[in-house]
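Q: Convert this sequence to structure tokens.
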Amino acid sequence: MQTIEFTNQRRQMRLSWPSLAAALVSYVCAGAWAQNPPAVNSGSEALSAAPASQAPTYLRDIQPIFMGNCSRCHNQQSRFVYNWLDYKTAYADRWEIRRRVWDSWKGSYYKEAMPIANSPESLALTDADRLAIRNWVDSGGTKGVATDANDAKSKTERIQLGRRLFTSICAACHQPTGLGRANMFPPLAGSDYLNADKSRAINIVIFGRQGEVVVNGMKYNNSMPSFPLSDQDIANVMTFVYNSFGNSGFEVTPEEVKAQRTQAPAPVTTPAAKSAFE
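A:
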């Protein structure tokens, strides 16, 4: 068998052609792994061998997580960070998303984990959410199709469906109780600002809002992003909020939401209308 000799002052090494070939293959594979590290397969966390149709998709599984846990920074109004509420942007940045959401959280990536530790979003993000994001990237970053909005006809149906949206999207900032966070996010519970003007509230959910707002006598100055929600979704979640937390009991319909989409975004200095409770 033909061999190659490697000689230096300290040692002499003899490699056969098969051994040399194996070494080269190992080197190439190691380089590929460094660029796109494989999924961490350990116990129940291993990426399942389920059909592609059952793998997480962006519109069905991942965008709702981003809306609920990442949108305060990663939204269409952001100037210095990527808008992860947009599929093309999230797909292009998917490996960095995986590293920051999963690898950094596991201590195997040197950059800070996202969401930032101890932030409201980080406290709300579950292990299952992180795993879904990791699996979405590892399975190809498929766009998929959004979950059917379940065309609610009655107020009761809107409240039931809206509760799910509120829990997954709104609760990270406004809290499951609707009480908000002091000096950060205004309360929705018994909110004079919310109950004073339903049309304005719908407008804000559609277009987002930045700037100071006074709610129940307290000033807040934070931003609310615009969410890529359908008219039906917005009607559902707002009907839930209006019928929870001691609010006015208003019902919001998809037709009202559609009408507000034709209006200009509500100005920051919009004067408060008379409260629905007065």
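The first strand starts at residue 3 and ends at 7.
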